[in-house]
Amino acid sequence: MPSKASTRSLPSKPTPTHKASPLTPLALASMALLSLQFGLQPFLNHRYTHSSTNKQCVIVLQEGLKCILAFFFFTTTLTPKEITDQLHVLSLKSWILNASLPSTIYSLQNYFILLSYSSLPSITFSVLNQTKTLSAAFFCYLILGRRQSGIQCGALVILIVSAVMIEGSIDIIGLFNGTSSFDLSDNFSGDRFIYGVLPCLIASGISGLAGAITQKVLQGQAKNSYLYSLELSLFSFIYLSVSLLYTNNFDVWGIVEQFKTLHPLNLIPIFSQALGGILVGLVTKYAGSVRKGFSLIFGIALTGVVQSYIEGKKLGGNEKLGGILVVCAMYAHGIGGGGIKMGGEKKSRGGGKKEKEISVKGKKMFKSKKE
Hints:
By secondary structure, the protein is mainly alpha-helical. The protein has two domains: 1-17 and 345-371, no CATH class; 22-338, no CATH class. It is 68% helix and 6% strand. The chain is built from 14 helices and five strands. It has helices spanning 25-48, 55-77, 80-88, 92-117, 122-128, 131-144, 150-167, 172-177, 190-220, 225-247, 252-260, 267-286, 289-311, 317-335; strands spanning 15-16, 340-341, 346-347, 353-360, 363-370. The strands form two sheets. Strands 3-4-5 form a three-stranded antiparallel beta sheet, with no helix packed on it. A two-stranded antiparallel sheet has the order 1-2. The two termini are 25 Å apart. Residues 4-10, 12-18 and 338-371 have low confidence and may be disordered. Keywords: Membrane, Transmembrane, Transmembrane helix. GO terms for molecular function: pyrimidine nucleotide-sugar transmembrane transporter activity. It is a multi-pass membrane protein. Residues 1-21, 343-371 are annotated as: Disordered. InterPro entries: Nuc_sug_transpt (IPR007271).
């Protein structure tokens, strides 16, 4: 005869759903600054970075500058005790484990981004780069178990559509009026696809993977974002410097001559990109890698506004509608998290009772109640 314990039914497993946490003032400020940096970066690159500029030297210099910025913010924004507490848990092993993979991915991402910048218009690059939002959501699910709810998935789709509308690749108003058609063949043909579109899509895809890993370290280990940015940039700087030496047959003086070819004005977009890396760390920690995508879409809107001002054109209906959709998508994503849905009550096999899983001081218990 089966024992009484064997007739007890097991509680159904909870189905995790990502619940959006409220945005703090620091998260909002970080997102705003990241939007500003991202929106202006394409213009800085096109104006101060020539297609013949040595990309390896630019990336090495960018990572070195990021190290300096991260160290500066880490030592000036924390108290001595907070600095000691953060450094106390830091070790060579943890540095290699936490920084090696994402820093390598970010380095590859930067290379593909620079390659794509020189072959695509500013606004086209910005839109294609936003596929990183979908990539971030996908890898956050795989690595962190953060499943997006149906409303949140819909918000992400609206986000991407709004970005393409702002860019002008899709004339939504014209499609409804029958005065335009949907054609992106110019952007996906010939050298523009090989040297522009494809590198941009690769950079966006691996960005989601690196973002999920970074979010796991920053939020799971309660690590300071400036310190982690320093860890990442230092690893990247060492890795890229060795790679630069190897590809130049360890000709140190030849490498120095390559750096001398950089114009002082080239430091403007390099500094801006390095500062953007610090802001990405802050947004990832306090808002999450998926919400980072919303910040970047606002950057696209800013790119459109600046480009419209430079060219002396007024914003069209698609740009305005796209901006409204961005705000709606961000609001929908914020309220769309369903938290954790418990399986709740389930009938036992033979006891005629329902059992409900409850938690008391961190221990799982079962509470029975008669029907």
